[in-house]
Amino acid sequence: MAVGARPELFSQRRRPPWELLIDRGFQKLAVVLASVVGLVLVGILFTVLGGAREAIGRFGLAFLTTSNWDPIGEHYGAFTAIYGTVVSSLLALAIAVPLGVGTAIFLTENIIPLAIRQVLGVMVELLAAIPSVVLGLWGIFVMEPFLRPGLESLHQWLGWLPFFSTTPLGPGMAPAVLILVVMILPIITAISRDSLQQVPLTLRQAAYGVGTTRWGAIVHVILPAAISGITGGVMLALGRAMGETMAVTMLIGNSNNFSFSLLAPANTISSMLANQFGEADGLQVSALMYAALVLMVLTLLVNLLAQVIVRRLSLKY
Amino acid sequence: MTSFNRGSLTLQPSLARNRWNQLLTATAALFTALAVLPLIVVIAYVLFKGGSLITLQLLTELPPPPGLDGGGIGNAILGTLIVTLVAALIAVPVGVGAGVYLAEFASVGWFARFVRFGTNVLAGVPSIICGVFVYGLLVSTRLFFNQSYSALAGGIALAVLMLPTVIKTTDEALKLVPQELRWGAMGVGASRFVTITRVTLPAAFSSIATGVVLAIARAAGETAPLIFTALFSPFWPEGLFNPIASMSVLIYNFAIMPYEAQIALAWASSFVLVVMILLANLLARWLGRFSNT
């Protein structure tokens, strides 16, 4: 909390001018350092917008709806990457939300002894600390070969569905989604756990007092009370999944050919940036900057929506 | 009054609701096991596969040319330390300063609201966008002595990523410092500067340090922003204005090479990186314990 507007009134000591000067200088310095945040944000926006200007002028909004990425003919459309970004994140979310919220419930409601709960909680937090590139390496050499027979039989049984219509040949959307699940799981678990822990004890006591079971209390009382925090966490995880780069780049196959199949190689905006930026020049750099702008807008919208949802849904006790 | 069967107060496992209860509890336990499984498998694999490769030579030598055996990851370890240090030297003073502003000078008002909002927005910006930003600002414009990719640019990109964490941690930590401490300092005639630097900040030190250590650990593992800024170098670091190797970019570059020796170096590098980050997390926990007491 800030000290009152004029704290010097509390002191009867006469202040030498240099002391006042230091105080004022210190406050100015803090203001300058705080404005760095604004400068960086404006800098990011202008750099990306400036870099994308040429591509925006050339392709306009058609960039978002065409999927032709051709550096030789200088035609660029980011639909495949945008589709990949949105679909991979949403699928990852669909798997990670039940897992994460279930884990959070298991770690907050008195199901197992506190000591074990704490150890498991620390383990989930440590999972968040493992670098994305290490998960990608593990994904390439351990997870993907392990999954491939399963994905192949999925193709054999359900190959008539467009989502499983291609033969899995290694990297593709499905392994990338699973590595994304691993990456966003700790965020959902940690935030859901915090929200569940903040539900007042009296609510639980009241629920148990009228004779409900543990899951009756969880489903009808505790989860509705914690829903704002959980939803906020889920949105935050969605934003993180959309921007996630390294693990996805290493597992998704980086193909600009559009396919509905989850077993085919695909692309996301961030993996496209990671892959092509180093070797791009001219209009391609501008097109990549345009794609970066799209990613920025998408994640910004998701993050703002998260803040709005939390504010709207939060119950006041 | 009509009488009705109140039933027994002891648990009846055969009741449908109790069966449901057990089923859902078992499902939650299964989900928890599934959530913890990747950590165990990844850590075990990295420690086993990477750890078995660790030798003194590996930690101190340069990586071999593609296709050849031997060599090590010495330059990448040193490079990661240098780039992370540069990032910390930029992000910690700026972040702590901004946090001090938010907590001590202006907890209300449009500018404080803007800085808080901006910090949240910045925290949500994908790391690769930070890389693109620093690429556009410094690398493509050759701002530093006409150099393009450089360790300094890499450090700045990581600093942008660390900044929101450091600001938030400082702000939160300072808010938890009891107001009486500030009044006490002011009461004995301390100036604002002295109150903050000698009383408030030291009181919040361990909380701030915890956040800073976690931010540094996260930055050390980042790859995406470094691809555009620090690039990679197969040689020893040649100053701050030249491309520099880092463990994370080494893992990315070598993992997709078709050579066994390079893939082995990627595993070894993962081992060193994961051990460093886990140690940093333990340090943060240890520091956090002080702030709780």
**Oligomerization status of the protein chains:** heterodimer
Tell me, briefly, the overall form of chain A: flat
Strand content of chain A: under 5%
Structural category of chain A is mainly alpha
Helicity of chain A, as a percent range: over 70%
What is the number of strand segments of chain B? 0
Total beta strands of chain A: 0
Q: SSE order of chain A, as H and E?
A: HHHHHHHHHHH
Kindly state the percentage of residues in helix of chain B.
Answer: over 70%
Rg estimate of chain A, integer Å = 25 Å
Provide a count of the helices of chain A: 11
Biggest sheet details of chain A: none
Overall pLDDT metric of chain A: 88
- Residue-averaged pLDDT of chain B: 88
What does the radius of gyration of chain B come to? 25 Å
Count of alpha/pi helices of chain B: 12
What's the short version?
Chain A is mainly α and 317 residues long. Chain A contains 11 helices and no strands.
Q: Could you characterize what this model shows?
A:
The complex is a heterodimer of chains A (317) and B (293). Chain A has 317 residues and is mainly α. Helices cover 73% and strands 0% of the residues of chain A. Chain A has eleven helices and no strands. Chain A is flat and about 65 Å long. Chain B has 293 residues and is an all-alpha fold. In chain B, helix 3 (74-105) packs parallel to helix 6 (151-175). Chains A and B meet through helix 1, helix 3, helix 4, helix 5 and helix 6 of A and helix 1, helix 3, helix 4, helix 5 and helix 6 of B.
